[in-house]
Design brief:
Strand order of the largest sheet: 1-2-3
Number of domains: 2
Number of strands: 5
Strand content: 5-15%
Helix content: 40-55%
Structural class: mainly alpha
Largest sheet: 3 strands, antiparallel
CATH architecture of the largest domain: Orthogonal Bundle
Order of helices and strands: HHHHHHHHHHEEEHHEEHHHH
CATH superfamily of the largest domain: Intergrase catalytic core
Amino acid sequence: MSQAKKAINLYHYFLSKPAKSDAPRSVSAGREWQQAIDQMVRAMRLKHLSYRTEQTYLTWMRAFYSFLNGTSPWQLDSGSVINFLSYLAVERKVAKSTQNQAFNAILFFFRRVLNQDIGHLWQSVRARPKQRLPVVLTPEEVQLIFNNMRGFHLLMIRLIYAGGLRLNETVRLRVKDLDFNRGCVTLRAAKGDKDRETLFPELLQEDFRRHLESIRALYDSDRENAVEGVFLPDALVRKYPNAGKQWGWFWVFPSRQLSVDPTTAVVRRHHIHAQRLQRAVKKAADAAGIAKTVKIHTFRHSFATHLVEQGCDIRTVQDLLGHANLQTTMIYTHVARHNKLGVRSPLERLPSDA
């Protein structure tokens, strides 16, 4: 069996392990769903969707499959979608963003597998998300959290705050992405499959030099033990067969344990799991006594807001964050304490009491 076939078989778990509440399903319907899911996986790989997106979409297809109670995928129509989304909203009481995520997964399945376009349901069943202001830390709160962190977790979160990185962008950094001479970090194939550069302050560079020296021993150990090279995106592994074993492609934040690549079933070294940093930040925020809900993305919000407060041009902030739409970046002008227009509350202009 080829590695590609093994990888596709990993996704049959939701067919072979139905939920306890599921009613008995016909064998023929199960086979039809297996074929449909295989086709969906191939379509996602063809579109170069991220592995996390694959996992999310297939999780929702499991829920959809369970809800349909044995209905063949080739008998589905727009009514099935409406009933499922109504079930999510009324009975499971999911958030609007969660309902939209489920709709995106089913929309992909209908378009790429069933060759049906249910895009006309967009306005009628898709929940309209509410716009919320981001949680932003003050510089003093940021420093308090830093004071309660140690090791590479501290290094990672300082880099996120220094350049406005996303969590996934940080854990996927390669050694060659750090440019010490130009003082910038290159983020490759980031959200929207776009590359961009952001800040890499000199204040962090010496710490990163020491960090790279420490992980070089791990890299050398992998080469001595003939471990497969690190994962390479798209077709680079065919174009440059040995690139995954080169130092420049090694992870900046590698995992200490080897693991099985879920897309190829190859044992290799992956980057550290994102949850490790999430847990470390939550623990540090609690220790600092900060009542705000602090997540990794909070430091990205704080980076942008503090730049706006310093009077940085909003389009420069947009470029550093990698936003396609300026309106997305403009939200930080609403949470900045001092915006570039110098607007002050009228309360501050009232005459003092005699």
